[in-house]
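Write out this protein's structure.
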Amino acid sequence: MQLKTKKILIVGSSAKEFALAKKFEDYGCEIVVAPGNSAIKEKFECADIRENNVKELLDFALENAVDLTIASSESAIKSDIAGLFQNNGQMIFAPTASSAEAFISRSAAKKLLYKLRIPTPRFGIFDKIQNAYDYLKTAQMPQVIRTDETVEGRDRLVCTTFATSKTFVDDLFCRGEEKVVLEDFVYGHEFTVYAVTDGYSALPLTSVANYKFMEDGNGGILTSGIGAFVPDYKISKEIENSVMHNVVNNVLQALEKKGTPYLGIFGVDCVLKDDGRFVTLGFKPFLSDHDAQAVLNLVDENLLTLFEACAVGSFADDYEVINMSENTSVSCVLSARCKGKVIEGLELVESDIIPFALNKNGYMEYETIEGKNLVLTKTAKTLSRAKKELYEDVDVVKFEGKKYRSDICEQVEKF
């Protein structure tokens, strides 16, 4: 008897959704991405439904007999796509809006960390500009200043003086931000531990070494992510287990006690300090754009089976460990200073190419968008080989105004 092809709806419109669709295509699934973007539409079927239009997404899933929906979009999660789908008998791998509050709101994350006594840098949360000024006058520098939620454009900055801090706070409030989060900058090695959970039990996926500053040597603008390597060889099993026990399990227990269990992929952003201890910066509600392909390349489990087990409640019975490859992955984001420049050499690249949202001109040539354009990811048996082959492919891709980190995998922990 021939098995039915599973139909998967992936909700989102960025690089991580492209990587996820590629992974599920390997399982022979029928993929639909909503809404997708210009690059995703070239390879996969897309539904023209906005990520936060959860009622229309539900109607689509019902009308098209979708077997599993995966919501990796923060906008969809915030609009409570999981709660709506669950209440209508649709299988979905995503947290509810109430359970994901601390994963989307930085102020909620900081309050939760403080409540659970999980070590985190000293911080302040402000909805009045004068209170933020008063805090900055005596704050330790550098200060990391962020919006409460991720927004397009500059939503974070590391400031080394009161003057620059005050100017950026001014800019955020003038832009209409209702709340800003100020936090002491912590020197050390930044990493993320990802886990999979059904809301009651959790298993580690892998650790990721993050590169978030735009310039080599950790200079320039602080971004959401500009490169990574997986697994993070600097993070021992003891540290990973400590993150799982002291952070992941404590957070899950708190959410379960509150009546809002979290289902999905759970990212914990940390900094490993020189003394060997780590502090927790915050959380992620899914894989990040810059590391999604690197992580997914190493997963040796069938993610369809894994995600379904979480959604139906059999995860704890079915899984004792999530099997990961012994290979290593390195990723690098290529950005452009301006839009409309022709990209050459993509057909020669052997690394995985994950586009953000490229456009084509009248000659069917790919052109840049302003900002992040591509994530190149190379997977190999050793980190040195993956890095070498990745940067060979980075050199092959050519366009005017190309910008990238050339020091991924090197010792660059100073700000």
